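Course assignment 3, question 2. Fill in each field.
Student: A.L.
Task: Predict the tertiary structure for the chain below.
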Amino acid sequence: MTSASLWRILKVCDGRVAMVVVVVVNVNEVLDGHVGLDVQCLDRIYLNGYVPILQVGGQVVTFLTKHLGYRIPSPAVLGKTGTAFRRSVNSFVEVNHIPLIHFNKEDRKVDVMRRHMLAQKRTGRSGVVAVGVAQEYQNVFASSEREGSNGIPCFGFHKADRRVTCFYFYLWDTDFGAGFIKVCAYFPYPIKIWVNGHEWAKRQATRAGIGYTALSNGFATCEDSQALQEICDRLGPGTIGVFFQRWRPCCRCL
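Answer field:
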């Protein structure tokens, strides 16, 4: 930082010149003395889910031959599996009368889903509020083919970015509030889980009878900040794992 950024010359009306110090401060110094509540809590949580033993080409071949029992590890099998999964999703939303919404490229997904979330929230019950469909680039397995010495086709598999169908299962959860589970409809079917730690903490505080003033994403005040911090400290992998396991049977196609 140069001295020019610390000093400014001002000329007063009587012709005299005064030196004024310009103090540069950081965020913590600005907030010092003005903070009404200080707690640490996980905010928006975005997790990746994948199958560790399906990350390289050789593992795909083993999966198709040893696990599924096919003599030839053909990529056609993966196509059939993906088609079956998409049909399962369509059947799931039809049987359960769940809206199936196709996102446009310019759509802001949270805005599209807001009214569905609010409708489920008013019921006071957990539920799948809607399923969104989007075409997105995902890192999935592509295949290559060559003819073996015996004339039988041989297939290889490698990771590549491809534009494929993704399903967003938007959820209203009585513990976490709004969240979603995103599932790629092509092998090896990576998933993403999104939840909000602040919303989870709010619900636990309400159940514990702890009074607080809520912000749109956090807390403004709390009558027992220590108890609130203890709640926030409880949020970890186990709690989020229970969230995912709870929704697997509800979304039977997952």
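Instructor remarks: The chain has one domain: 38-250. The chain is about 35% helix and 35% strand.
Grade: pending
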